[in-house]
Design brief:
Order of helices and strands of chain A: HHHHHHHH
Number of strands of chain A: 0
Order of helices and strands of chain B: HHHHH
Structural class of chain A: mainly alpha
Helix content of chain B: 40-55%
Radius of gyration of chain B: 17 Å
Number of domains of chain A: 1
CATH class of chain A: Mainly Alpha
Largest sheet of chain A: none
Strand content of chain B: under 5%
Oligomer: heterodimer
Largest sheet of chain B: none
Shape of chain A: elongated
């Protein structure tokens, strides 16, 4: 069961419209290394974790990633707020307007729709956790690229926060993988 | 100003300085050089954890895992209203609770961490109760007003 909390994990209040940046941020919404893929991947993998520690960790990180989907959507929404059709066209978002108006729709930065094939599940705890560690590193790298693309502190702060979260998740997955590997040897 | 805003204005001032909820030294603007609240003062210098406030700003409660990028200095938004200030306080403790939650998943018998976890949960519960009483629900079961305030704006993705 999931229950919604009416707040963001970290506050976001972007005042400056920036459509080109909004387009880039889509990568972390519906892109291959994005938050949506991460969340679904962990929430699927948890069913086949070997014990309570794994089931808990995958549930808890998968749930946090849903909160990150919300943060990314919030950033895109606020960056696009009040954009005119001309501005959208100039930023390469004409297609986005034609299909979705100002609504949110999970695609990558080039407009390719989200697909569940971005997620991996093998049923093997070690393979799944290694895959998650790699996923967290890819997401960290993507956040660094996004931080390279902006000087707006209203955007940089939440991006820096999200980047740190990938570092923590990587560490926790690595710890769990090491625990399982040690115990499997016995 | 909607009816709900009136409720908020009536309650503020009266509610804010009650003895059961002591937020007087909570000042999110100054964390970099000072330790604005009691937990931080008690925190040992050699602790492996940041205090909840610094941890929240950094997105990371664990000192040995923090790595900044491009010298971006962690700084959270300065709350513009008392409502936002209380929400920041809640988010700060919710974050510390979540960090210890993930840690304990891998190390469930760590009594020291569990103790800390319970302490932060208490602070989170107290602040959440206060917030919901004054400003409206954070979860759907938290409606304390006579009206159905769950539907009130703003929602989290809207500029505050």
């Amino acid at each position: 069961m999931f229950a919604y909390q009416k707040r963001l994990q970290y506050p976001i209040d972007i005042k400056k419209k920036d459509l080109k940046l909004a387009k880039c941020l889509l990568s972390q919404y519906g892109g291959p290394y994005g938050e949506l893929a991460a969340s679904l991947q962990y929430l699927n993998q948890r069913f086949s974790m070997p014990d309570g520690r794994g089931k808990a960790l995958l549930t808890d990180i998968g749930t946090e990633e849903l909160g990150h989907v919300e943060m990314i959507c919030t950033m895109i929404y606020q960056l696009m707020k009040g954009a005119t059709i001309e501005e959208l066209k100039a930023a390469g978002l004409g297609g986005q307007y034609a299909q979705n108006d100002h609504a949110l729709y999970p695609t990558d930065a080039s407009g390719v729709p989200f697909t569940i094939t971005y997620t991996q599940t093998t049923g093997d705890a070690i393979a799944d956790l290694e895959s998650n560690m790699a996923g967290e590193q890819r997401a960290r790298a993507t956040y660094e690229h996004l931080m390279d693309l902006t000087d707006d502190p209203d955007v940089l702060q939440p991006l820096a926060f999200l980047r740190q979260r990938e570092i923590i998740h990587y560490q926790r997955f690595k710890e769990l993988k090491n625990i399982y590997q040690k115990e499997l040897k016995k | 100003m909607n009816e709900y805003m009136n409720y908020y204005n009536r309650s503020i001032g009266k509610q804010y300085n009650t003895e059961e909820f002591t937020m007087n030294d909570w000042n999110p603007g100054i964390y970099m050089n000072q330790t604005p609240y009691s937990d931080a003062k008690k925190e040992k210098k050699n602790s492996i954890l940041y205090n909840p406030y610094e941890g929240f700003a950094k997105g990371n409660l664990f000192k040995d895992l923090y790595k900044s990028y491009k010298g971006v200095k962690p700084k959270i938004l300065e709350p513009k209203t008392e409502k936002m200030e209380l929400l920041s306080y809640i988010s700060t403790y919710a974050f510390a609770v979540h960090e210890l939650n993930l840690y304990l998943d891998n190390d469930p018998f760590n009594q020291k961490m569990l103790e800390k976890y319970k302490k932060y949960v208490e602070e989170l519960k107290k602040a959440t109760k206060e917030y919901e009483k004054i400003y409206g629900p954070l979860t759907v079961t938290g409606v304390k007003q006579k009206d159905w305030t769950w539907v009130n704006d703003p929602w989290p993705w809207e500029n505050n």
